[in-house]
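ugh ok fine here u go
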Amino acid sequence: MTQRKTQVAIIGSGPAGLLLGHLLRAEGIDCVIIERQARDYVESRIRAGVLETVTTDLLKRLGIDAGLNEQGMMEEGFNLADGERLIRIDITKLTGKHVVVYGQTELTRDLIAAAPERGLDIVFEAKDAAIHDADSDAPYVTYAKNGVSHRIDCAFIAGCDGFHGPSRKAIPAGKAREFEREYPFGWLGILADVPPCHPELIYSNGDRGFALASMRSPTRSRYYIQVPLSERLEDWPEDRLWDELELRFAPLAAGTVTRGPALEMSIAPLRSYVFETMRHGRLFLAGDAAHIVPPTGAKGLNLAASDVAYLSDALIAYFGNGDEHPLEAYERKALARIWKAERFSWSLTKLMHRFPEDGAFERRMQKAELDYLAGSQAMQTAVAENYVGLPL
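structure:
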């Protein structure tokens, strides 16, 4: 078994782990990231890409924002629809802020590409990662690569390895506090190299149900529709999905729904989940390891970024002057923002989707809510504040 030492061992090379690694290295803190998958796999994962100011500010602080500046699309508003009309939420006018559309795939590539020159070590294809003695003063991580066992001794472990990773599972059941809401439907999505049907995102709840028109760039579009969990991808040939999207967006969009070959199609279930035990001894959770939000509202990546902002500041304070108070406050600060984001994503999901148990009364309530939203600047401001991201 090989053995090495570092100050912080980071498990997972998604945006949370990569951002944390770069923030620590910028302050001279030694760290290493271990990742189960190969680099090609990590860089090809297709995810959302609406970035709040908290996320773009971190990239600018690190000086890893050239791609963001060159390719990112600044969005000053987005739209909710009741199937016949658009209700535009002018987020810049209402909050003075904006969001940036920049794919998580591109962001991940930028962070990985910048790692070598900044001394950030990433070990890809690190299998069977396991956490040991997290509640002691000498935690360590083990993994296997190319048939060789490895051990990393460290002062702290950051679990940034997503919902299915080993970090959360390393916390004893008796210490766990978790909350979950599974939704009775999923999102059927298609990604294609076609121009978007509208210059801003549209969340629609029309007579045919929920649909989302979004984009990754001026020439790449991402569409979704709500489907029952019983649906199978093979039941949805591309033409059938394009037909359905045309029906849902024809009355709303500024342009037509342009068809093109699918780069990717998938059905994703929706879940709200919070694991409130974000610290166990010297193990800290961040990102999807601790929480999942429905994609409605685009909070997942941005919540990971805010976790990392809190955690990096706490670790920098500890290694800089021995101050443990920010580490002790990490869970409380992170959860306060997490639950507010969960509330927004949950409420927007309730407003814009059809639930199987709902009837005519609930549908009228949705329409009344959207109608009130259309005429209330106060309510639009509340939605805009949550959409652009609450302050840290």
